[in-house]
Amino acid sequence: MKKTTYLLPILVIAIAGLLSSIFIVDEREKALVLQFGRVVSVKEDPGLAFKIPLIQEVVTYDDRILSREVGPLEVTPLDDRRLVVDAFARYRISDVNQFRQAVGAGGVELAERRLDNILRAQTREVLGSVRSDQVLSTERESLMNRIRDNAITEARALGLEVIDVRLKRTDLPQANLEATFSRMRAEREREAADEIARGEEAAQRKRAQADRTVVELVSDAKRQSEISRGEADAERNAIFADAFGADPEFFEFYRSLNAYRASLTGGTSSMVLSPNSEFFNYFGDSQGR
Questions:
Q1: 23-32, 125-134, 234-243: range with highest mean pLDDT
Q2: Which helix (H) or strand (E) covers residue 206, if one does?
């Protein structure tokens, strides 16, 4: 009975010690075995592992690819046109021993703050070496790769591997947006004024050309009409001349009748002429009285 009383606590302590010396390394994690704060072993393969109870402790870190977003950051490209940039990075802890030495007990939180500083510095450096139109063009991909490559070198000292860096948003600051919109509006108004001026100039040319065409057409029509009238008068005179030559006496009689009709109009016409005037030749009788 006394042996059982002593053995049972010893057995319990032994089992507790055995269990506390065993730990499981998850396939998604890496583990460090620390002894008084110093790294004594690194466990990267999943499965069971052992440590000395009470003396050693285990610290685990995520072995998966992690994401880190960088808050809005103002950069100034070569053309002094400020931009607000949002970026994010994908990274993983590649060397847990180096990671522990770099951040100590600060862990992932401290490492991410340092990674933020690296990404911000590299983003400012790379985007500050080009013009803003290059940041907004197809060259954006190469600029992101430059930021990633530079960040890889610096993050290696933290035991981190930067896998990718992406620029999510690249906008103008609010104050610059208003100025840019005003400048765009003024530019469009200037272009509209230029188009209106060119349109009015073209309209004036068209009107002047139309007026000139009207004058030319009217002048040509008058010239043609005068020519036609002259030709008609000439033809009429020729006909009269032929008629006069064929029968002068009848032609003289015809001309006298036209003169009577033109002069003796209305009921109150008065003419003072000598009775012997040639105008009344055809008013006499057959003897000329």
A1: 125-134
A2: helix 174-246
